[in-house]
Design goal:
The structure holds 2 protein chains of 2 kinds.
Chain A (H helix, E strand, L loop, with lengths): L7 H10 L1 H24 L3 H17 L1 H14 L3 E5 L2 H14 L4 E4 L3 H6 L1 H7 L3 E4 L2 H8 L16 H12 L8 H17 L3 E4 L3 E3 L4 E6 L3 H7 L3 E7 L3 E2 L5 H12 L7 E5 L7 E7 L3 H5 L15 H5 L1 H6 L10 H11 L16 H5 L6 H14 L5 H14 L2 H9 L10 H11 L13 H9 L14
Chain B lengths: L1 E4 L3 H6 L1 H13 L3 E3 L9 H5 L7 H11 L4 E4 L2 H10 L7 H8 L1 E3 H8 L13 E5 L2 H6 L15 H6 L6 E2 L15 H4 L1 H17 L4 E4 L2 H14 L4 E4 H5 L5
Parallel strand pairs in B: 1-2, 1-3, 3-4, 5-6, 5-7, 7-8
Classes of the chains: A alpha/beta, B alpha/beta.
Bound molecules: iron/sulfur cluster.
The site of iron/sulfur cluster (SF4) has 15 residues of chain A, from helix 14.
């Protein structure tokens, strides 16, 4: 994998040039945000629920090893095989071995971001296993060979026409279809035989309950239930942070998840998996892949509270206008921008800058992750680790020096009457070029406030508070 | 109560009228205000871009300039936010703490500290759309935010509604960020400008003749976007309306 920093700004510019896609994307996600608001207004206890969810998650994370072991013990009692994967490679190896032991060549799979994280599909392809995504959006992305652009709605950046084109290629349907229902039907027809003849099924897991040794999968298409129950072999890949201590905690999260995500009261299917079906086998692979390291990061560990609802993406004005693919990562949007750098600091060093720090994400987040504060902190860390473009670093360094010396600063501003050209050259050239690309520059003024004050209030003006040279 | 007036660099260089209005308004309200001449910047651009150690000189100067005042007032939400919440490039001495705890954005100072209940000199016969910068809205909490579903409140609106003749227009997405975001406006120029255009169009379609804001940086950005895109709308700082500007 290349370490080259993702150029979010350029990818975003590209996305913006395509007006129909941009408009659709922005409006569709904003609509989800508004539906979420409507649901919030129905529940007077919304803020209490958030508080409670946050508290449960922080408590769990602070005692994660204990709860993980408790889950393992109880899951085994339920007849579930539990595996531990330190990283993506280990996860893929484990899954590959389970499949091999069952001589399974056709795997059907419902959405799971963790497998994307592990880059599992290409690995299994090399082992001769065919993987078919059963979630509609995820399948579209698979056929188009793209990462999901949103954690809940993976193909949200595509118009119906795009999907029609992709399906025409693979399913030989009419490329001119514009009815989403017809397209969904085409997917159903194509997927059904694959599902019926699959050797193994794979799901993710939204929540893992330590007390009962069970896990919960939430979907709207029912595809996870098919993936899990039609074949006899069910493998669930789950990140270790998905734990909650007790079954009683589930109420809090189930109430928050779909309301925050799509603005619907609950997902169509909320399935508790308690053990293998008769004659079948159930495996849970618990994946670390950097999570325990993140747990040790003082400023960033609470990002592990995330329940992957996508609300922060829907509300994010930058995400809505740049599209998920512009983040060049498995996780996009505000949550992606704070966790991606934990996977690769250099490659994702630009993502914490893909935000205005407006704070909307933090305030919609159902588990109260201080997302925008973590973005701010990441910038400091990245600068300390030299993961910031040199020019920008230099500008800030020089600007910082100038701002500490009022006489030099004033001299720079006084250099000419027209304030636009008063900014020192380095600031001017680096700043106003991109500024003026899609915006007019601020208007020149005759005199600065400082000049006006000296002229009109001079007598009242007190001398400088203290000499500017060091004591 | 002795007030130190801080005029951020944007206002000093590009919007001096907003600075003058702030000073005159505080004087009209009987306040004892001084503007230390040797001020530059609060350090926000450096802090915001992650180059926090580069903010140290600006922050130290800020403290030298303002430590001797009871309250520090500035017509800028984002600078207030920086001083209050992120001003930590220098050691946190008593002086620094004093400055951080006593720095106010103009609207909150008028609303919470002076509790001004009338602006008899002010009349503004126009329809305005209020732009809450994210710094004032979500960081300083001068207004309610739609994300939380809380009971609506707005300190800038409270003040503006005391002005004779003024009418309000409400955009469809009242508290969406306008895309300025400090250095974001240049590092992510395309997204920033798109957000700005969307914002001014939203206000324009709601019927606003003016966009009024407590933040000149957002105004500078939105004005640039409106002029380039040809959206006929004007901009004004809240201090100017409260100080009695008629247009
Ligand atoms: S960070 Fe919060 S809002 Fe974003 S996906 Fe995770 S839980 Fe949802």
């Amino acid at each position: 994998m290349s370490d080259k920093p993702v150029n979010h700004a350029r990818a975003a510019e590209h996305f913006i040039e395509d007006t129909p896609h941009l408009q659709f994307h922005d409006e569709r996600l904003w609509d989800m945000r508004q539906k979420r608001d409507a649901q919030m207004h129905i529940l007077p206890e919304w803020q209490e629920l958030r508080e409670e969810a946050s508290r449960i998650k922080e408590h769990t994370l602070s005692r994660l090893p204990e709860y993980l072991e408790q889950f393992e013990t109880n899951a085994r009692k339920n007849g579930i095989h539990v595996h531990w994967a330190r990283d993506g490679a280990e996860h893929n190896r484990i899954v590959g071995e389970i499949l091999k032991a069952h001589n399974a060549r056709n795997l059907i799979k419902s959405k799971s971001m963790v497998t994307e994280e592990c880059d599992m599909r290409p690995y299994l392809a090399k082992q001769g296993v065919t993987v078919t995504e059963t979630d509609l959006g995820e399948r579209i992305q698979q056929l188009d060979d793209q990462l999901p652009s949103h954690i809940v709605v993976p193909a949200v950046h595509k118009l119906t026409a795009d999907v029609a084109k992709i399906f025409a290629k693979d399913y030989h349907t009419d490329p001119e279809i514009r009815d989403p229902h017809l397209l969904a039907e085409a997917q159903r027809q194509a997927a059904r035989p694959v599902i019926l003849h699959a050797d193994a099924g794979m799901t993710g897991g939204n929540f893992v309950v330590a007390e009962t040794g069970t896990f919960v999968v939430c979907t709207n298409e029912g595809n996870a239930d098919l993936s899990a129950t039609v074949p006899n072999l069910h493998i669930a890949t789950i990140g270790i942070e998905r734990l909650v201590p007790r079954m009683a905690d589930m109420g809090v999260f189930i109430r928050l998840l779909s309301r925050s995500a799509l603005g619907s009261p609950i997902t169509q299917y909320t399935t508790h998996f308690r053990g293998p079906q008769k004659g079948g086998e159930m495996h849970v692979v618990l994946v670390d892949n950097g999570r325990s390291a993140r747990l040790g990061m003082e400023d960033f560990w609470t990002s592990l509270k995330c329940i992957r609802c996508g609300a922060c993406m829907n509300t994010c004005p930058v995400y809505r206008r740049s599209g998920g693919l512009s983040y060049g990562a498995v996780y996009s949007g505000p949550i992606g921008a704070i966790i991606d750098p934990t996977f690769n600091e250099r490659k994702y060093s630009t993502l914490p800058y893909a935000s205005t720090l407006n704070g909307s994400c933090t305030n919609v987040c159902p588990v109260k992750i201080n997302i925008h504060e973590q973005l701010y902190k990441w910038r400091r860390v990245l600068v300390q680790h030299h993961e910031m473009p040199f020019v920008k670093r230099e500008i800030m360094h020089m600007a910082g020096k100038l701002m500490g010396q009022p006489r030099m600063y004033r001299a720079a501003i006084k250099a000419t009457e027209v304030s636009l050209s008063t900014m020192p050259r380095f600031v001017l050239y680096n700043w106003l070029n991109p500024w003026g690309k899609h915006r007019e520059n601020p208007h020149p003024v005759k005199q600065t406030f400082n000049d006006w004050y000296r002229k009109n209030r001079e007598t009242a003006a007190k001398p400088a508070a203290a000499p500017e040279t060091k004591k | 109560m002795k007030i130190g007036l801080f005029i951020p660099c944007y206002i000093d260089a590009f919007y001096p009228d907003a600075g003058i209005a702030t000073l005159e308004l505080l004087e009209k309200l009987g306040q004892d205000v001084e503007y230390p001449l040797d001020q530059t910047c609060c350090g926000q651009p450096m802090g915001n871009s992650g180059c926090n150690s580069d903010a140290a000189a600006a922050e130290a100067l800020f403290v030298r300039n303002f430590a001797r005042y009871d309250k520090i007032v500035m017509p800028s939400g984002s600078c207030t936010h920086h001083v209050r919440d992120n001003f930590d490039a220098i050691p946190q001495t008593d002086e620094v703490r004093h400055v951080r705890e006593n720095t106010y954005e103009l609207v909150e100072f008028l609303h919470d500290i002076l509790k001004v209940d009338a602006f008899p000199w002010a009349e503004f016969n126009h329809t305005v759309g209020l732009h809450n910068s994210c710094g004032t809205l979500r960081a300083l909490r001068t207004a309610s935010m739609s994300e939380l579903g809380e009971k609506p409140f707005s300190k800038p609106m409270d003040l503006l509604s005391k002005v004779k003749g003024i009418r309000f227009a409400t955009p469809k997405r009242p508290d969406e960020c306008c895309g300025f975001g400090g250095t974001f406006s240049v590092t992510e120029e395309a997204v920033s400008a798109k957000m700005g255009v969307d914002k001014v169009r939203d206000h324009h379609q709601a019927g606003a003749e003016y966009i009024v804001s407590a933040d000149s940086s957002c105004i500078m950005h939105q004005q640039g976007c409106a002029e380039r895109a040809g959206v006929p709308i004007r901009f004004i700082h809240i201090a100017q309306i409260l100080n009695g500007a008629s247009q």
